[in-house]
Amino acid sequence: MQIEPQAFDRVLSSMCTEPHPVAREAAERFLATNPGDPGTYPTVSALEDEAIERLGEIAGLDEPAGYVASGGTEANVQAVRIARERADSSRPNVVMPESGHFSFRKAADVLGVELRIVPTDDRHRATVEAVRATVDDDTALVIGVAGTTEYGRVDPIPELGEIARSVDAMFHVDAAWGGFVLPFTDYEWHFGHAPVDTMSIDPHKMGQAAVPAGGLLVRSPELLDELAVDTPYLESTSQATLTGTRSGAGVASAVAAMDELWPAGYRRQYVRSQNNAEWLADALKKRGYAVVEPSLPLVAADVDRGTFEALRAKGWRLSRTAADELRIVCMPHVTRTMLASFVGDLDRLEVRASVPVASDD
Amino acid sequence: MQIEPQAFDRVLSSMCTEPHPVAREAAERFLATNPGDPGTYPTVSALEDEAIERLGEIAGLDEPAGYVASGGTEANVQAVRIARERADSSRPNVVMPESGHFSFRKAADVLGVELRIVPTDDRHRATVEAVRATVDDDTALVIGVAGTTEYGRVDPIPELGEIARSVDAMFHVDAAWGGFVLPFTDYEWHFGHAPVDTMSIDPHKMGQAAVPAGGLLVRSPELLDELAVDTPYLESTSQATLTGTRSGAGVASAVAAMDELWPAGYRRQYVRSQNNAEWLADALKKRGYAVVEPSLPLVAADVDRGTFEALRAKGWRLSRTAADELRIVCMPHVTRTMLASFVGDLDRLEVRASVPVASDD
C-alpha cells in the first residue's frame, strides 16, 4: 500500500500536530502493547501511571488519579458519566457554555442526561450570571472550558467552580487543548485554582504526543470507582475506560513527550505559538479583517467564504467557526514561514478579486 | 525514555498480537493523521472507506457501512446504542449468552438498558431455547458471539438471528476476534448466513493490524444515522463514533494488513493457529488435563492455580477463564516452538511438584 498522507505544511485548523520525535519513537517502540491488559503488558501499564503523575503536575493536582483515554471526547463523556452516577436527581442536568465541545452533546445523548447550553458573552466566554441562573438542584455537573475549540478562550474557572459547589454539582474543566499552554499564562484554570473535580487534558494536542493519547484526571480515586461496572470498586483502573484494548503507543508517547518537554520545552512552544498567533492576528487586521484577539494560540477572523474556499483549493487545510469565521490554530508544526506563505496566498487572492476580469461576452 | 516493552515470546493469553510488518509500516507512516477530521486528513479518511469495503467482503456484506473503531468494546457499545435508539420500548432489554464479552455489560451500564444474560450449554455455546424463552416485546437486541473470549466458541448464529426477528429485535454478532479466522471454517456466522444487523470485527486482533483498529459493520447506512447527535442524519460518518480525534495509524494499518493478507495470508495463518491449538490441546490431554477442544485457535484447560502462578513466575503472560481454567489464544505470534517451550516448563513444574522436598525441620 503505497499511499502517503498529506504533509503538515498546510494544516492550519487542526488541534492535533506532528508528534515530537521522542514521542514518535516511543510510539513505535510500544506499538504492539495494550495498557487495557495490565497483566500481559505491565511495562506500559506502569508508564500509564507515570503519565497520570505528570499530567497531575501540569494540572496542579498533588495525588492525581485518572487514565490515558482515546482522546478528549472519551474524557469528557466519562466526566459526564461520573457526574451522572453521583447525581442525587433522577433527572440530572449538565450545564455548559455554548463554547463547549461537541463531545458534551454526544455525552448527553449517549448517557441520557439533559444538557443545558448557556450563551457566551461577546468575548466568547461563559457568562457567569447566566450559568448561575441556569443551574438548579438537579444539576449534576457544571462545565468550564480552558481553551475553547473555536476561539481559544478561557472561562472564569474559579467562579464557575463556586457555582457548581453552590448547588452540590460536580465541576469539570475541559482543558483538552489548553492544558499544555495554560501553565505559562496567568489564567486560573486547574485543580489548584478552583474546586475542580474532573479535567480533560490531552497529550496528543498541544502535548505533542501521538494519537491516541487523551487524558482524564480526577481529584480523587473514588471518582473513578463511579465508572466500575458490576462491582462497587474498580479492580483495575483499566476497567474504568470506555474502551477495552488500548494503545500502548499513545501512552508511551505521552510519557516520552512530557519527559522531554515539561516544562521548558512546552514553555518555549507556548511563546512561539502565541507569538505566531499574534503576528497572524496583526497581519489580518492590517488587511481589514475583523479579528478575534488570540488569548491563546488560536486566531479567528471574518475571511469570507469565497476566499476561504479559494485558499482550500490551494491546498490549505482550514476550517471555520459556527459563526462562519476562519479559524487558525497555531500548533507546534505551524511556523512563521507557513503563516507568511498563507498570508501571501491570501494577498494574491485579494488582488485577483479586485482586478476586473476580461469578459468573454 | 529508555524503557522497552516485554517481548511477545511469552504472551499466550492475549487476543492482540504483533502487527504484520506491512501494517506496522503503514501505522508509522500515518501516525500523525486523524480520520476524525476528514476535511484536514482526506487521504486517511478515504482509507477508512476502503477498510470498511474490505471488512464487508470478509463478513459477507455487499454494500457495507461502518467505521474503524477504537476497538471491539466501542463497536459493541455502539451496536447496543443503535438498538436502543431504534427500540419501540421505553424499557428496552438486550439478550446475550453468558459468554458475551464484558463490553456488553459496560454498554448496558453506560446506555441505561437492561442486560439479560442467558446461560450457555455444556459446550459453552448459547442455548437457543433459553434465548427464545428470554426475549420479549421489549427486547431491542439479541447478541450472538462468533468466537467467544474464553473458549473460542461460535454460537448458532442463524437460529439466534431468527429469534431476534421473531420479536422485531435487532441482531448483533460479535466477531471481534473470530472474524478473521471464521471465513476459513464451515461455521455460519456473518451477514450472508443470517439476518445480522450489526457486527464487531477487529482488524487489530486476528487481522494483524496495529492497535487501535476495531471495526463496526452495519447492514445499511441508516443504522449509522441512529448514532447522529442533534441532527436526524449524519453529515459525516466520522461523527458517528464514540470518540473525536481518531488514530490514522490504526486505519492505515488495517488496510495494509487486509491488502496483504486477505484471503490467502489469513487462511494460512488460520491453519497454522488451529494446528497449534490442536497440538497444544493434545499435549495437555496427554498430561492428564481436562481440555476444552478448540473449535477455533483457543485452548482452555484445567491447569491448577498453583502451577499457573509458577508458570507466570517464569515469565509466561497467562490469564484464566471465569471457571478458573488456563486459557491460551493461538495468535499469529504464537509459534509451535513457544508452545513446546511452555509445555516443557509445565512438565518441569509437574516433576518438581511430585518430588518430595527435603524438609528443613
TrEMBL record, chains A, B:
EC number in record: 4.1.1.11
Catalytic activity: L-aspartate + H(+) = beta-alanine + CO2
UniProt-listed InterPro entries: GrpII_AminoAcid_Decarb, MfnA, PyrdxlP-dep_de-COase, PyrdxlP-dep_Trfase, PyrdxlP-dep_Trfase_major, PyrdxlP-dep_Trfase_small
Pfam family, one: Pyridoxal_deC
Keywords for the protein's UniProt record, in alphabetical order: Decarboxylase, Lyase, Pyridoxal phosphate
Named cofactor requirement(s): pyridoxal 5'-phosphate
Primary enzyme class: lyase
Gene Ontology BP, a term: coenzyme A biosynthetic process
Described function: Catalyzes the decarboxylation of L-aspartate to produce beta-alanine.
Annotated PANTHER family: PTHR42735, SPHINGOSINE-1-PHOSPHATE LYASE 1
HAMAP family on file: MfnA_decarbox
Protein name in UniProt: Probable L-aspartate decarboxylase
Organism listed in the record: Natrarchaeobius chitinivorans
